[in-house]
# Entry
Amino acid sequence: MNTLGIQLGTAIDKKDGQYQVAVQVVDPAEVASKSKGGSKRVPVTMYHATAPTIFEAYRKLTTTSPRKIYASHIRVLVLGESLARDGIAKVLDLLWRDTELRTDFYIMVANGTEAKNVLKILTPLEDIPATKLYKSLDTSSKAWAVTNPFTMDQLIEQLVSEGRNPVLTGIRIIGDQEKGEKQSNVESIDPATQLKFSKLAVFREDRLIGWLNEEESKGYNYIMGNVKSTVGHVSCPDGGYLDLEGIYFDTEVKGNVKNGEPVIEVKMKTLGNIADVECDINVEDVKTIEWLEDEEEKKLTMLMRKSVEVVQKKFKVDAFGFGEAIYRSNPKAWKKLKPDWEERFSRLKVNISVDARIQGTGTVTNSILGDVRE
Amino acid sequence: MSTNAVNSDTDVHLLPCLDDNIAMIQSALGGSPDLIVKGFKWGDQWRAALLFIDGMVDATQMHEMIVEPLLSLRKDDVPFEPSPGIDALHALKDHVLSAANVSVVDQPALLFNSMFSGDAVLLLDGSASALRIDVFGIEERPVGEPITQSVIRGPMEAFTENYRKNVVLIRRRIKDPNLWIESRLIGKVTKTQVGIMYLRNVADDKIVQEVRQRLDRIDIDGILESGYIEELIQDRTITPFPTLNNSERPDAVAAALLEGRVAIVVDGTPFVLTVPGLFVHFFQSVEDYYQRADIGTLLRVIRFISFFIAMLAPSFYIAVSTFHQEMLPTGLLINLAAQREGVPFPAFIEALLMEVTYEILREAGVRMPRTVGQAVSIVGTLVIGQAAVDAGIVSAAMVIIVSITAIASYVIPTANMSITVRMIRFVLMGLSASFGMYGMLIGIIGMVVHLCTLRSFGVPYMLPFGPFVMSDQKDTLFRLPWSRMIMRPSLMNHENPRRQRKKPAASKGE
# Structure
């Protein structure tokens, strides 16, 4: 066990036609619970090598690393943006084929920087940056709905299924790269440099073609049914906002072919609670609740429609798997539609309907705001 | 008390002359000073001698039952024809001696045997026979608490080294004429009394017959403990698994008898054997039945879990840490890797080091004089445990593994099964160190196959698991309430399988 370099994160970039593999290897003695505090080493270290193929680069790592790099426990794979634009399928083959790797690690795309740089940033709370990325992606996808945690097997599934294109989450470095690489980055309360998930990377087949912003990402995730819980605000009639916490989401995407024309029905059901009342409104009134439900429905519909439109107009690529939905409902029609699907997709009719219900108002009814003002 | 073991010198006979007989006996014993010969005259005229081994007889009893009646017998009171000879012996036995257990012996071999068992021997002048009179009185350890099989609730009586007391302790629990005892002397030199006990209408005749045959086949100079018998009559010698159960608890033996098993009581040891000894029997403790069924079941499940921990924990750790790191959650892997950082040995050597150290400590703990016990335990725990970790020779995780293994092996209620587990553990450790989990599984499969080939007195060892007997599952991994255990375990009783006559009427209104 102590002859292994436990690799938790991998970054792959493409440079001058060659692959650059950088691995983040954990230094167990520095991470383990009762570290004796003597040495002030960083908890992880990085080895990197460049070679024409990924496997060669991997093996080449041993020329710098004292231990064999052990890949079973890899948590995240960060792909460089340039690599992603070039195509990720070749990269995935090794990782998919090799017996040592599990398939439950998350895959993300470095946004605006090299993948290697992402794994160089030291992070507080979670000593190991790769673990921080993993957990952060996991938590944010559950509570905020703008990220899209894709594991290896899910990504492969998306790549090979018909009428569907993968979407990966982007990772950004916020702050100064150099400061982030120093131990001092984790010694201040508000670290100078942080890693942040933002935007979703849209792929055509295995090539990155563009990014969705936060709103669009949210819309995308609503349609894909990836949302478990999130928060969204509604503008009150008299100004101010009211937050609704969505606690249950169920989205159904159905494809149909009517008179040779494909139509997509997106039906969403959602349950929510009133989470935060920051305006003068009577939430004890059933009518208000009904009004809120209407507002929520409108807002969600708008979000999703915007997302669909952006993808349709800007990227012209079926990131939602609408093609797959049609294939499932009508395989024969799909065969005809398939050759020029991308073109059809960009003018595809998508009907979106939302059924929002508000379940509770939290532990209080009306806001204390009204009383405070009097 | 018939046996073939004492017939070795049948050519020697008692003579009708008292002095010759005494001389013969004395010379046979090499003039041992512990042979006491008391010569006297009874009925005012006839010569007689009382022979006994110093310290083996109860002096008061002997005086009241033999010496006093004989010496106070006046010539006129002699209730028979005063012709010394065999008839006088019978007459004395029937009319004069008040001792309960008296019989006539002809052969010197039997006579010696009686003397060495604590009988007094009465020789009459002119008689070629002798009377043996039971006045046994050796100072013996009283019935004490069980040391090796203690319980929280249940009888606190244990067998002693005395055959008779042991038989009584069982008899007291089963007051039934069907509790039959057959006794024989085994050991050409030690002439140890060995008793077979069984419930006649419950135990399988075939098993009883098998026990008889195997005991009669024994041809050895000495039996000093029931372990001798166990090894001589077990079905297969080359197996790490015990196929005879032993207990120092009379209640456990009584329970076994009620299930139709056969008990073998050996003089001189508090450990009584019960046969057949099946795999599940080694995980049953009497307390399972003294506590309520749910508690009993919990205890038993814990025991089976402990069995697997004691056997597999180190080999599993070795396999996972050397071959299958991917099986561990990432956090745990990093933690373990950090502990192993700087440990100079591979996991197998590390485990072996600690296991062997522990076995040495354990053996020392059993063998050492009580007075140095504390010193050893301090050295053991502090030096071996704490210091080894601090020095970085072994990892803390390994100490935890070895400790849980050691503790788990003591949960198994029978000591011999726990020793078995410890032996197998080392084999499995070697296999996992060489071939990982694959090797460990091969080892386990091999063990299971071996277990399934074993038999104990003709009964498959793994019964009721293999062959699977549904009705016997009630008292294996689980212990069902008594109300569900109507029948005895089916393996050994065909004649009288019912434990409870009828199903108890379902209690209503509760």
The first helix of chain A runs from residue 28 to 31. Chain A has a mean pLDDT of 86. The radius of gyration of chain A is 24 Å. The interface with chain B takes residues 1-2, 4, 6, 8, 26, 28-29, 31-33, 35, 70, 72-73, 75, 100, 102, 128, 131 of chain A (CB under 8 Å).
